[in-house]
Amino acid sequence: MGKVVMYSSVSVDGFIADDNDQVGPLFEWLSNGDVPLDESGGIRVSRASYDYTRAYWDEIGVTVVGRHVFDLTDGWGGKPPGGIDHMVVVSHRPRPEGWHPGAPFHFVDGVEAAMARARELAGERTVEVAAGAVGGQVLAAGLVDEVAMDVVPVVFGSGKRYFGSVDVQHLLEDPHLLIQGTRVLHLRYRVRR
């Protein structure tokens, strides 16, 4: 079984979006380099960010997101971002009627059921969990193996927290990966058990 990684780009003060769900400069590192990250060529990063991010994207089998993120992105038009095989959407509501019927999106009620479905779909590959409310719930349930952050040098002051509404202490190991890209610092921590 693959590992579970909680992930997002994040401000240095711990936010993944502002109060209005705007990400501001959090994803500018995905367009400030000269190395194409995917076949489209629309995402261009520094060499250091490419070496890390491409390898990470290639290990992901499934990404788990909440319904709020799904709705904000209009489900990425039915095509999971970054070449990911499947998306699991944690939602009390079913797939929107008529919405891309063949798209590899699975709507599951509840975090634990969503994680079980994601692990089944991912097999030996990584299950990525979007940081924020759902990511915090998965961490609180003890289901996260690693925390991955792309830390961007901006201070939001308020907004949507990386760890959602987690209100208890969780210890992480020292970072086992630290890579400096252009306008981003890639960090990974294992969750202490």
UniProtKB/TrEMBL annotation:
<dbReference type="Pfam" id="PF01872">
    <property type="entry name" value="RibD_C"/>
</dbReference>
<dbReference type="GO" id="GO:0008703">
    <property type="term" value="F:5-amino-6-(5-phosphoribosylamino)uracil reductase activity"/>
</dbReference>
<dbReference type="GO" id="GO:0009231">
    <property type="term" value="P:riboflavin biosynthetic process"/>
</dbReference>
<feature type="domain" description="Bacterial bifunctional deaminase-reductase C-terminal">
    <location>
        <begin position="4"/>
        <end position="174"/>
    </location>
</feature>
<dbReference type="InterPro" id="IPR002734">
    <property type="entry name" value="RibDG_C"/>
</dbReference>
<dbReference type="InterPro" id="IPR024072">
    <property type="entry name" value="DHFR-like_dom_sf"/>
</dbReference>
<protein>
    <submittedName>
        <fullName>Dihydrofolate reductase</fullName>
    </submittedName>
</protein>
